[in-house]
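I am still getting used to backbone structure tokens and would like to learn alongside you. To get us started, please write out a protein record for me. Once you have written the record down, we can walk along the chain together.
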Amino acid sequence: MASLEQLFVDIVGSNPVVQGLAGGVVIAVMNTLGALVVLVWSNPTERALDAALGFAAGVMLAASFTSLILPGIEAGGIFPVLVGFALGVAVLDQADQWVPHIHVVITGKPQHNASTANPRIEEDSTTGRERVPESDSRTASVLLFIVAITLHNMPEGLAVGVGFGSGDLGNALALMLAIGIQNIPEGLAVSVAAMNAGFGSLFYATLAGVRAGLVEIPLAVFGALAVGVAAPILPYAMGFAAGGMLFVISDEIVPETHAHGHERIATLGTMLGVVVMLYLDITLG
């Protein structure tokens, strides 16, 4: 809507980089809002979380096409978008390969496996096999989950920045609102995971959710700045952000939401997310 675009310009100004910064702040704040939900809803069911994450996947799915791939093709043709898309998939794939090792950096402890000499590994009295204490395993899992969500916030922040850098304010605002809305269930999921791992306080759980969204602000600024300085990279950047987001959907969100027997509600959540993004794109784009 023109009035929303004008209000945004009145508040932020017309500089695309400053607009990208504002967009990054908005989506990070909405991630924080999701993390804060845990203060009033500390024990959501798996069914509810799967539905919420399914909704996030639907928003990302539609946004990848309506706000990134199709505008990228219009701006520079199909080939640059496909090149950027392939690069986005490759980078996220490599990030996923790196994530299983990140808790070594965070905790200073080696990975637990049969070939690692670790005094904390215990022997199962029933099977006689080595096992990792449940608390250690849960802590490592939640650390990996938080880092994974943080890495997966990267293409979202980049997408918002690229959107503002493209100069299409209506499309950029639609993308900002859509990414911000889907950040709410992501922020909640991070905080709930931290609580379930026994980190001990709602404050720490909330902090974990907030931290995951902070990476989006500098990447939004970078996306807007890069496109503004080198306009020809716009279709590549749009393809890159779309490839990263679609990789996240297929590799992480869909398997997670379909792992607990709640496939139907997760799928309905995805459909709702697609509808919301399409509505935002038509009314704002």
User: Anything to note?
Assistant: Residues 258 and 264 are 9 Å apart (CA to CA). DSSP finds eleven helices and two strands in the chain. The chain has one domain: 2-7+16-110+133-284.
